[in-house]
Design a protein that fits this description.
Blueprint (H helix, E strand, L loop, with lengths): L6 E7 L1 H10 L9 H13 L7 E5 L4 E3 L1 H10 L3 E9 L15 H7 L6 H15 L5 H4 L12 H14 L1 H17 L5 H13 L3 H13 L8 H13 L7 H16 L14 H4 L4
Parallel strand pairs: 2-4
Antiparallel strand pairs: 1-4, 2-3
Helix pairs in contact: 1-3, 2-3, 4-5, 4-7, 5-7, 5-9, 8-9, 9-10, 9-12, 10-11, 11-12
């Protein structure tokens, strides 16, 4: 069998070049997915594009890989640097884009996380939504996803990796604490607990927040009207409700609300919950 002669060249691909290749060389590929190339296009416009910068052609100049990236360049109108590979075997098409997508857990594993990767990544995503002010009344009550922007996989992975790398030791510590508390109190939501303590670490109030949650989970000797006791009672009721798929945001709101009721000096900022004032006085 004749060997393919591969060539590699770094090229600034213009929107005109991308459109020409898509029109003349895009043979035998699956139809492009608008949700994918529009997402890539948005990142290119915003200057946050960090995806695969490779476009592959076979020895007949047919496009084997890169149609979504080229479609994004044509759409956004901004030239992008790509490694152009020419001369690949046509059979390579069968092996492109067939692997398992990288998860957020994989991303932080490559940044040094050795355990509890899923809990860390879920908690960091919830923290992001919290900081973006995404918790509306409907979202926290389980009636709607409104305000909870669904992150594209590459966007989510980059976000989680960036937050993890800010303080990997804290992420590992918080995940261990969260798992220990859930073993004693199974109804607690790991991602909510992680987001709550992660924010406390950022605000230099970690020890106070950790003591608050640990004493609430222990449940020993809590006064009848103590805010921690009220929080535990609320969590118990949530666990048997129909809010199963929205427990994270709701439990996070409870943690913030009851912590602030108990602590008058060191408090969480409530501005991120301003869209759902009823959650700040949550009652079941």
């Amino acid at each position: 069998m004749e060997e393919s002669q591969h060539t590699f060249q770094e090229t600034h691909v213009t929107p005109e070049m991308a459109s020409m290749w898509l029109e003349n060389n895009n043979v035998g590929n699956r139809p492009p997915k608008p949700s994918v190339w529009k997402h890539y296009s948005r990142m290119m416009r915003e200057g946050t594009w960090g995806g695969t910068n490779i476009v592959i052609f076979d020895k007949n100049q047919n496009l084997l890989d890169g149609q979504h990236r080229l479609k994004a360049v044509a759409d956004c109108g901004i030239p992008q640097a790509f490694q152009i590979i020419r001369g690949a075997d046509s059979i390579a098409r069968n092996y492109l884009d067939t692997g398992r997508s990288r998860s957020a857990s994989d991303s932080i594993s490559m940044s040094g996380a050795t355990k509890n990767q899923s809990a860390i990544s879920a908690g960091l995503v919830l923290h992001h939504h919290w900081m973006e002010g995404a918790f509306t009344s409907d979202v926290c009550a389980g009636h709607s996803n409104l305000g909870m922007k669904k992150l594209h996989a590459s966007e989510r992975n980059a976000l989680v990796q960036r937050l993890f790398e800010k303080d990997p030791e804290a992420c590992d510590l918080i995940s261990q604490k969260a798992f220990r508390m859930r073993s004693k109190f199974p109804v607690i939501n790991i991602s909510a607990l992680f987001a709550f303590l992660y924010r406390a670490k950022q605000k230099q109030m970690f020890e106070e927040a950790l003591y608050f949650v640990e004493s609430a989970v222990a449940g020993d000797g809590l006064p009848e009207l103590d805010s921690r006791r009220l929080m535990v009672q609320s969590l118990m009721k949530i666990s048997v409700s129909k809010l199963k798929n929205r427990k994270g945001p709701l439990i996070l709101a409870l943690l913030v609300n009851f912590y602030n009721k108990r602590n008058t000096e060191v408090r969480y900022t409530l501005t991120k919950f301003k869209q759902c004032p009823d959650l700040l006085n949550f009652k079941i």
